[in-house]
Structure formats: structure tokens, C-alpha cells
Design a protein that fits this description.
246 residues; mainly alpha; 7 helices; 2 strands; globular; MCP_transmembrane; transmembrane; MCP_dom_sf; membrane
Length: 246
Amino acid sequence: MAGFFKGMSFPLASVTVYNSLVFGVFSNAQRLISQYRHGDERRACGMLDLAVASGLTGLVSVGLGAPVDLLAGNATGSGNVVQIGSAAAGGGVADQRLYRGPVHCVSSILRSEGLAGLYRGGGAMVLRDVPGYVLYFLPYTVFCELLSPDGKSSAHPVAICLAGGLAGSISWVTATPADVVKSRMQADAMLHRKYTGVLHCIGQSYRTEGLQVFFRGASVNAIRGFPMSATMFLAYELSLKFFRSF
């Protein structure tokens, strides 16, 4: 059972900071847009304003999210395993770990690739997160309005969970192709680099595995996106309500 929770320390340490950044940027972007366009930061944003705020949120999130995703995948995932030995020569093939943990992973990448190495796959992450967050916050807003027909200023917690869950599923499914490309580029082994860039990764993946490769894991993303986003939006709305009461 413990194997399902292997490598949880780094995600637990980073997820709080990352989600605080995402929701903080989204809230403040709405305030700034409302202040700039209407002279009132408390005025509710229209759909176009929400789309701009969501896109900016996705762009800013890459600054922190790209290194976090890279370390999570390489320090604890398949990017941390290389095979040594040669089965063709009659010898055994064994797995060997490249990194002892997140700190060793960071230092190794910085030594071999510099700061740019921490942003490997960043271009694919921009393609994932900018439209991904637009299709995250906009559906949430629309579903909240549909599930709160009485015009209340704040939706019921059940409506928030349902709207957040549906928005999360929509966002993750539509972001799956870019996420596949991002994951492949980040897991690209330092010693055996296969991809020279985003377009090369897309073309190579399509030629070798077909169009379906870009939708691999879409159903899993939809399933995991629902409870994760439902909980996240509920915590976000309840936190705002709590702090605004002071």
C-alpha cells in the first residue's frame, strides 16, 4: 500500500504554494482588470475579462509549475530510472536511479543544463496551461450561475463542488494532448535526448504512435480532475468568504 504514496513529500510541499499562486493571481487579475476597465475593482468580471484573467493565470503559473512538474517527474517518476547492462549481450538489465531526491535532482540539472534545464518542457506547459485555465475558470463560473438560479451572490457549497468538479474534468480532458507532450519532454533523459523542441516532440510522437497518443490518459484525467477541482474550488470560495468577513 505504501507504494501508492511513494514520493508524496515533494508534491505536498509544493502544491500549497502552487495553488496559492494560481488562485491568488486569478483573483488579483480580476481586480486589476475591473479597476482598469470600469474603475471599480469589486465589479464582477464579464466572460471576456474572465478569459483574460484565466489566460494570464496560466502564463504566470508556468514560472513555478514547470520546475515543480519537472522535479516531480524526474525525482520520483520514470524520468529517474535508467537501465544499465545489455540484454542483447547476454547480460542482465537493471534499473538505476539517477537522482536521490528533489534536492539532488535540482543540483544535477543545474550543473548539467543550467537554469534553463528546470524549464524543460516549459513551452508545452504554456500550450497546456493558458487555454487549460481558461477552460477551468470559465466553465466554473458558468456552472455556478446555472446552479444558482435564485441570483444569490454566493453559490451553495454543493453547487460549488459540482461546478468545480465539472470544470476540472473539462479542463484536464482538453489539456491532455499538451500534457502528453509536456510530460514526454520533461521525462526526456539527459543522456539520451530524443526531442529538440515542442514541434519535434509532437511530430515524432505522431509518426511513431499515431493521433491517439495525444489522448492517452484522458479518461483518467477526467476522473481525477473532478474530486480534486471540486475540493479546491470549495476551499477557495470558503476561504474568500472567511477573510472577507473581517
